[in-house]
Hints:
With 266 residues, the chain is an alpha/beta fold. It is built from seven helices and twelve strands.
Amino acid sequence: MDINHLLKAFGSVIDAYSWLAPILLLILIAFLKSPFMKGTIGELRVNIAAQLFLDKKIYTLFKNVTLKTEDGSTQIDHVIVSRYGIFVIETKNIKGWIFGRAQQKMWTQQIYKRKWKFQNPLLQNYKHTQTLQSELALDPNKLFSLVVFVGNSYFKTPMPDNVVFTRGCIRFIKRQTKVLMTEAEVLEVCEKIQSKRLTPIFKNHRDHVKHVKSLIKKKQQGKTDEFCHKCGSPMVLRTVKSGIHQGHQFWGCSAYPKCTAVRQIS
């Protein structure tokens, strides 16, 4: 069979299935707009910025670090280790107007007249930082929490500390110039992260997503006593040991004394 016959046969196949093209295009567009792809693209932009503008001899980048927790797992978008500290980064690929203050549990995204609520990423990243500190036995004074917004977004409320746009991520990291760790300590932290993180395979990612969905479902069902409204850590049942309320029980944050949130038992 010569080349002309092959081209003719190929053209016939294309003609026969041309009706699939619009469907495949719609599927591709939906996939690119999915939360998974938006998150992946956002993380990729931060990864590229780190690779291009941070000296690899000084800064070591870890991507998608999943660690075991008491109630499941937590996934950190980026961890950057250097002698100037350990940077724990949460990435948000969100467009539109953003309304949110540091202590609010939920923030708001607005596009024209439509509004959506999403979890305060500072509180979300607080849990990441606490997990990393606990699992790796790190000094909290050497950890820096940073939330990076990528995409076409604009804050309509004052931008909280430790929240930046993509272009501010590298500036934030490079502003930390005080040496906090020796080269040997940096190497030790990198080895700990590599040994403690779950293997980045599909099963571990699927299990983590399942865990996150179960937490969201519990919160939607009103089972909020299990989690701190300030930092997202588990709440534990405590008993007043002295005073006029001695013997009374209440919900206290497990991150105490760093977080002093309490909730009375209804």
